[in-house]
What we know:
Blueprint: H1 11-20, E1 30-32, E2 39-42, E3 47-57, H2 69-85, E4 90-100, H3 106-123, E5 126-134, E6 139-150, E7 165-169, H4 174-191, H5 203-210, H6 216-225, E8 231-234, H7 239-250, E9 253-257, H8 265-273, H9 278-284, E10 291-295, H10 300-304, E11 309-316, E12 322-325, E13 331-333
Parallel strand pairs: 4-5, 9-12
Antiparallel strand pairs: 1-2, 2-3, 3-6, 4-6, 7-10, 7-11, 8-10, 9-11, 12-13
Helix pairs in contact: 2-3, 4-5
The protein binds adenosine-5'-diphosphate (ADP) and magnesium ion.
Amino acid sequence: MSKHTDVNTLGEFGLIDHLTQHVELSNGETYLGIGDDAALIDRGDGYYSVISTDMMVEGIHFDLMYSPLKHLGYKAVVTNLSDIYAMNATPDQITVSIAISSKYSVEALEELYQGINTACKRYGVDLIGGDTTSSPKGMIISVTAIGKVEKGKEAVRSGAALDDIVCVTGDLGAAYLGLQLLEREKQLYLSQPETQPDLEQASYLVERQLKPEANKAAVDYFTKVGLVPTAMIDVSDGLASELFHIAKASGVGIIIEESKVPIHPDTQEMALKFNIDPITCALNGGEDYELLFTVNPRDLDKVRYMPDVFIIGDIVEHANGVKLFSTGGKLHPMKAQGWNHFESKE
Ligand code: ADP
Ligand code: MG
């Protein structure tokens, strides 16, 4: 009998590592391949082309019971642009590929494209191609984003050095709670269809889940003040998971102060209603699409005056691992819990 190893034994990142372990780069222009938010290709004119791709699958990444198609199109673009900004780069073009089952009408797909077009306009990117095909069930959307960054200005995951300062933009954990709320309302609706959804109180959380934004402003600020982060990653799988990526790629340890992690008051309040510690939402939630970055201490003043940014910790020796200094005054080792995308065996 041939061998059958369950993909769950490796986890998402273990699987990527396993499948790509023998990949060798043979083109001189390929400056950075697998392992960062985006790849970097030398354009030969003092810039790198920056390329990233992501896929969203109905039933795994979105549920049309609560995701309006317009928002879905917008989110599919924005999440890819976020990976380009995470390299300290500017996105210029996207391609969009869709696989659709026959349950989708032309009108529904028009709505999806309204969202795609709105995102393109808002972020100044051109839709330059893609592919359209049928799917036996549901919808799959794959977006590839292409951008550029001046050589030397790129921010990769591997650049964090001892004593660097760890910063994060915006606030964390809101999108995760938005999803919990939408799921709760869905279950309620399925069991009692006559009830009206009660999401008014939670508009911030729901919007962070359904219509996230990529942090263009942060990258614009870096350019304006001449700051190049030593390392950067976008927060798509939760702060803990992203901290581990930077620690592993840079060969360093990280200590984060719990009291410094930015959490919106609405997130605080709703987490407590759900009986979850708000810090857990920030560490293990995901889909915040904020930027986590490190800077050399000599650039401290430049981040101090940066709007909407929080200094949350320090880069330490590798042997320290990745730890959280709790509000109770204790050092806790962190766990990197990303999303488990392989739950369904269908
Ligand atoms: P992000 O969360 O920033 O989108 P991912 O976690 O999806 O990044 O991917 C991590 C890295 O692995 C990226 O460099 C990505 O291009 C690469 N990668 C993911 N899946 C594959 C695959 N099936 N084959 C080759 N490279 C992959
Ligand atoms: Mg990313």
